[in-house]
Write a structure and sequence with these properties.
There is one protein chain. The chain is α/β, with parallel strands linked by helices. 30% of the residues lie in helices and 21% in strands. The strands form 6 sheets. The protein has a 5-stranded parallel beta sheet with strand order 2-1-3-4-5, sandwiched between helices. Strand 14, helix 11 and strand 15 form a beta-alpha-beta unit. It is globular, with a radius of gyration of 24 Å. The N terminus is likely disordered. Bound molecules: iron/sulfur cluster. It is found in: Cytoplasm. This is Ribosomal protein uS12 methylthiotransferase RimO.
Length: 467
């Protein structure tokens, strides 16, 4: 009779978790937090649903296509694995019957949470797949590794500075899913940034729902970092981030900045290069009436004038924005106003959605819903104008020498590679197609900066020769 293996000596199987992360960069940072915690507790990851003991799906619930993709992924994970925990924005959405949408459509999921819910997700994981005992990881204090698991390439990272939003734009259900604005303590944000730079990050992308509002909920109170006081406010945060980035020459890029007057204070930092002269400002429309109907923040601001002043103060500034065409009640005249704005404001990079109703959004009740083909036709017209502006602005770069952050370069870049200048955020803007370097001895690696001479424009991208 063979001896029963001693429990302490038997090799314990490490529980494996499959993870799918859908949605925007804000959802991605939620995924990174959950994965960091899972890894800290000794869970392993699985690349397939079948190879996992349990699957977590971080969902997006913003527009109908994203909802469909999320629901399909949950269905796939249930069919292939059976044990599924759902988190993220879709998890917070209610269906037509007033009940939880995910639970109604997929009643066999093990647990459903909203976004920004690391602890609830971990509680659900512990219930259904007990954490492994590991004498090393059990000694690691909670919250270790301020720069934990990243889902982005090694050289860039998203830094989420707040959660939720105090605005109530009529087309948006994010506040109902993520709640009011909650700013992260400035010390935590700066510690995470320092850890990211120390880990090799060369580009930090600051994200939130409303970056300009950072600290409003805390009444801009003074926090502490590195033994010195720092106010919980966008300007002070960005100043400090610039200082932390400077020794490694890393970039700091700001997203979701609403054009409030205090954003002007950032211009000197952009001129000196401590933060990139790049602002992602989601205007959504230009016509005052439309902005009112959309209930947009900063809708009373004179945006054209503000942009003109920004460009005078910092001629290198690049403006990215997103817009909605065919919003309920939009007249042809109001739409023309938007086209004129894009031309006059010389928006460098623009994205545009044809308006689509989101279940639960106040805009659904607005009069003047336009037929889908009109919304789509306006989106196409908008993009034709926006692309012409964008390409003309790219053309102005030809002949210049620019710093490029290399995203990929096989074989040490001898045959060229792909990178981006300060004017291009990853995933959403164009890129720089790098030709083989001028000097045969020059090499390039992903995550390194190189100087390159811009030799042409190819669609939304630049063509450049590394020098
Ligand atoms: S600012 Fe408006 S669009 Fe953005 S998250 Fe807040 S409510 Fe939504």
């Amino acid at each position: 009779m063979s001896e029963a293996p001693s429990p302490t000596k038997s090799p314990t199987k490490t529980p494996k978790i499959g993870f799918v992360s859908l949605g925007c960069p804000k959802a991605l940072t939620d995924s990174e937090r959950i994965l960091t915690q899972l890894s800290a507790e000794g869970y392993a990851s699985s690349k397939t649903f079948q190879g996992a003991d349990l699957v977590i799906v971080n969902t997006c619930g913003f527009i109908d296509d994203a909802v469909k993709e999320s629901l399909d992924t949950i269905g796939e994970a249930l069919a292939e694995n059976g044990k599924v925990i759902v988190t993220g924005c879709l998890g917070a959405r209610t269906g037509e019957d007033g009940g939880n949408m995910v639970r109604r459509l997929h009643p066999s999921v093990l647990a459903v949470t909203g976004p920004h819910a690391t602890q609830e997700v971990m509680d659900a994981v512990h219930r259904h797949l007990p954490r492994p005992h590991d004498p090393f990881t059990d000694l690691v204090p909670a919250g270790f590794g301020v720069a934990g698991v990243k889902l982005t390439p090694r050289h860039y990272a998203y830094l989420k500075i707040s959660e939720g939003c105090n605005h109530r734009c009529s087309f948006c259900i994010i506040p109902s899913m993520r709640g009011d604005l909650v700013s992260r303590p400035v010390g935590d944000v700066l510690s995470e940034a320092r850890a990211l730079f120390a880990g090799g990050v060369k580009e930090l992308l600051v994200i939130s729902q409303d970056t300009s509002a950072y600290g409003v909920d805390l009444k801009y109170r003074t926090g502490f970092w590195d033994g010195r006081p720092v106010r919980t406010r966008m300007l002070e945060l960005v100043q400090a981030l610039g200082e932390i980035a400077a020794p490694s020459g890393a970039w700091v890029r700001l997203h979701y900045v609403y054009p409030y007057p205090h954003v002007d204070e950032l211009l000197p930092l952009m001129c000196t290069g401590s933060v990139l002269p790049y602002l992602d400002v989601p205007f959504q429309h230009s016509h005052p009436e439309m902005l009112k109907r959309m209930r947009r923040p900063a809708s009373g601001e004179r945006n054209l004038e503000r942009l003109r002043r920004w460009r005078e103060a910092c001629p290198e500034i690049v403006i990215r924005s997103s817009f909605i065409a065919g919003f309920p009640g939009e007249t042809e005249e109001e739409f023309q106003h938007l086209l004129d704005f894009v031309r006059e404001a010389q928006i460098d990079r623009a994205g545009c959605f044809a308006y689509s109703a989101v279940a639960g959004a106040a805009a659904n009740e607005l009069p003047g819903m336009l037929p889908p083909q009109v919304r789509e036709e306006r989106r196409a017209r908008f993009m034709a104008v926006a692309e012409a502006v964008s390409i003309a602005r790219l053309q102005r770069r030809v002949g210049a020498t620019m710093q490029v952050l290399v995203d990929s370069a096989a074989g040490l870049g001898r045959k060229g590679g792909v990178g981006r200048t300060y004017a291009d955020a990853p995933e959403i803007d164009g890129s720089v197609q790098l030709l083989p370097p001028e000097k045969i001895s020059k090499t390039m690696r992903a995550g390194e900066f190189t100087q390159a001479r811009i030799v042409g424009v190819r669609g939304h991208d630049l063509l450049a020769r590394p020098i």
